[in-house]
TrEMBL record:
DUF1980 domain mapped to chain residues: 175-266
UniProt KW keywords: Membrane, Transmembrane, Transmembrane helix
Pfam families listed in its UniProt record: DUF1980_C (PF21537)
Regions crossing the membrane: 27-46, 58-81, 101-124
InterPro entries noted in UniProt: DUF1980, DUF1980_C, UPF0703_membrane_permease
Name of the protein: DUF1980 domain-containing protein
Amino acid sequence: MADISLSTPDAAAHRHPSRAAALGSRWLGVGLAAGISVVTLMLAFAGQLTLYISPESVWFACAAAVVTIAGAVWSCTLPLGAESDHDHDHDHGEASGGRRAVAVGATAVGGVIATAVVAGAVLLPPASLSVSLALSRDTGGAGLFAGADVATLGAASDTSSFGVGEWSTVFATATRPELYDGAAVTLTGFLTPGADDSAQLTRLVITHCVIDAQPASVPVDIADWQSDYAVGDWVEIAGTVRVASDGSLSIEPADVAPIEEPGDPYEH
């Protein structure tokens, strides 16, 4: 005798999700991924992707975005609901229904959050990390940043290409600071207060993306600086490195020029 399986309406609905559910599933998958990919390419073409990742990572992000968009276009050739054909839950009963309800609720919450993130990326203008964030990440200790191999060698070398990050490492680790006395510098950054409210020139340094951004600072001898400048003002400083009697290094500025925030506000 043939085995005849009866299909209940609930089981049929589970095997064949509604159009709304299928659209929601596709949006939470390729839809959000394609949205982020489009934003990534737009930022890259506008030269603003470096506000979020290092320049060395731009090519990889763009390549991944192109592949993702191609995959999203291909997925549109599949009928709605096809992606769930091989993802059925064959466990029936109250326990299965409870798990399904929790899964649906978690998916809905996650979908709302993810959609808000994508909408924010599309609608909000790109912006650099704030000065307050830089101050909050300042631990008071000197950071060590890539590129300042001179700090390891303990001897002066060509410092003409050094930025705030490299000089902050030199100032913190130089074993023969007198070798840097008189070195000419031209640096760009924003002003922040030091431990004794003296002026510091600060720049955020990122290795891969803004998540790992860390502040680098060098002391600048500007008397009563807060009467002429506000914390966070961007300036270009041309001056000379000076060594104090206690061996500490600072910059003696010959010129301090207020500037607008650069297009790429980070050092890498």
